[in-house]
Amino acid sequence: MSTVTVEDIVRRIDEFAPPVLAEDWDPIGLSFGSLTQPVKKIMIALDIDADTIQEAKEQQIDLIFTHHPAIFRSQKTLNAMDQRRKEYIELIQAGIAVYSAHTNIDAAENGMSDWLADQLGFPKERQIVYTSYQMPYKKIAVYVPKENADQVRKAMHKAGAGEVGQYKDVSYHLDGWGRFTPQPGSDPAEGQINQETVVEEVRIEMMFPATIQQTVISAIQSSHPYEEPVFDVFTLENAQKAFGYGRAAEVNQTTEEMIHTVKRAFKLDGLKYGSVSTKKVHHKAAVFGGAGEKYYLDAKKQGATLFITGDISYHGAQDMLRDGIAFIDAGHYIESIFVEKMAEVMNQWKQEEGWTVEVYQAQAQKDVFKFS
Ligand SMILES: [Zn+2]
Q1: Nearest-angstrom CA–CA distance, 119 and 115
Q2: Residue 253 has pLDDT above 70, yes or no
Q3: Is the pLDDT of residue 264 over 60?
Q4: I want to staple 229 with a disulfide (CB 3.0 to 4.6 A). Which of 164, 198, 224, 313 is the partner?
């Protein structure tokens, strides 16, 4: 395998957490370095801070992939007059690229919101608390010789095509005949040059969310026996896939039990909570990464009576209790789960793509809040 570049890795990140899912105010993407930079070692980190940069230099990291964008507030100068800008200069001098996926990974399927829900042991049947984006679906129809239909169909499913609501591997097949005349210079899998060829073919149709189009087409091209596979792509007006923040699910636990669940799940020494009674049983709870208090009514709409998030304010807490919602403030740092979970995903891509990169999980960063 040739050299892996920042661009190769970014392509997989953008497919997993499409940038279109990010909020307008969110400065996601490449904040340092260039797409053409070679990558031998990649670090996964929650934030860029002085300790993380030091660790990256010691570990000879080429690319840091963070959850929180490295440059959040715009800078008018890049001098070394304060610590933040010194960090930026250090990154540039060390030639380390930095890429971030923030609200787009919060909203992604099997991204941050699902990682948090998984960690809490929420069942797989869960609802999105706040839908932030409706992704249009597309449909692809491809024509394949009958004996190769299964292999192409499976490759398309593996690329993510054929998901409809709660159903996987959804496709439609139609038998027919394909006709073509190979021209001089071609290298046909079937038939002879300048002779009309008739092949028993199958038309396979599948739906897929618009963002994975390139992956689905690549899967067809690498699994199809023909030199020039024929396929049609249609935009659908009747089907969309919802993406968004937070997950609600059935828990059937008391406030007290949920406090233990949260502490155990995120290895917390302490947390803040509010509840009319700690003995109250919650049929449904919701978890929301970062600072999610303004979405508590969306959680309530999903039937949740307990809301788990970070950075809850005094007045936000009052509002929740007033509306009958118990809350657990688990801290913003529960999002550090990003490091471990993203490393798993990255290692999976590494295998699929045959990358020769090393995936390193940042260790230096600690929560800024302590309990005494
Ligand atoms: Zn956050």
Answers
A1: 6
A2: yes
A3: yes
A4: 224
Find all residues with CB under 8 Å of 364, minimum gap 6, and list them.
51, 52, 54, 55
- Percent pLDDT > 90 in the chain is 90
Coil, helix or strand for 371? coil
As a whole number of angstroms, the longest Cα–Cα distance in the chain is 83
- Do strands 172-180 and 326-329 pair parallel, antiparallel, or not at all (unpaired)? unpaired
For residue 299 the two structure tokens come to 């959680």
For ligand 1, a single-atom ion, which residues have Cβ within 5 Å? Answer: 290, 335
CA 46 to ligand 1 center in whole angstroms: 8
pLDDT given for residue 277 in this prediction: 87
Distance 274 CA to ligand 1 centre (A): 22
**DSSP annotation string for 94-148:** HT-EEEE--HHHHHSTTSHHHHHHHHTT--S--EEEEEEEEEEEEEEEEEEEGGG
Residue-level pLDDT at 251: 97
Alpha carbon distance 108, 103 (integer Å): 8
Ligand 1 centroid from CA 344, angstroms: 20
Q: Ligand 1 centre from 118 Cα, in Å?
A: 17
The C-alpha angle with vertex 332 and arms to 95 and 321, in degrees rounded to 5, equals: 160
Angle at 145 between CA 141 and CA 151, to 5 degrees: 75
81 Cα to the center of ligand 1, angstroms? 27
Domains in the chain (CATH in brackets) are: 6-101+335-361 (3.40.1390.30), 107-131+243-334 (3.40.1390.30), 134-241 (3.30.70.120)
63-101 tens-digit pLDDT: 999 999 999 988 899 999 999 999 999 999 999 999 999
Beta bridge partners of 307: 286, 327
Residue 1 clears pLDDT 60, i.e. is over it = no
